[in-house]
Fold this protein.
Amino acid sequence: MEVKSVMEQTTRDQVPITKQVSLNFICAPLAEQQEIVRRVEALFACADRIEARLTSAQKTVERLTPAKAFRGELVPQDPNDEPAGALLERIAATNEASPAKSKPKTRRGAKH
């Protein structure tokens, strides 16, 4: 309220510099100001730790996503899909039924 009483109006409200020196401002005691600063700095440090944990977690997620794809965990599975075990058995049976292709024989333990 003290500011309003000394404001002068030109194109906008303002307090002339000559009247600013007479204004009284209430400030917290120095010890209280220091405690406020200490608490704010502690909160900023906490925020920095949380941000670091978030960055670490994001990197972990980026590494895990390909593994999830191989385990079929990226999207919900269709219960009507053939189980992987049954698919592998069917492929093996198909391979056994087809004529075997000749493969070049190699000796075990041979070094190239």
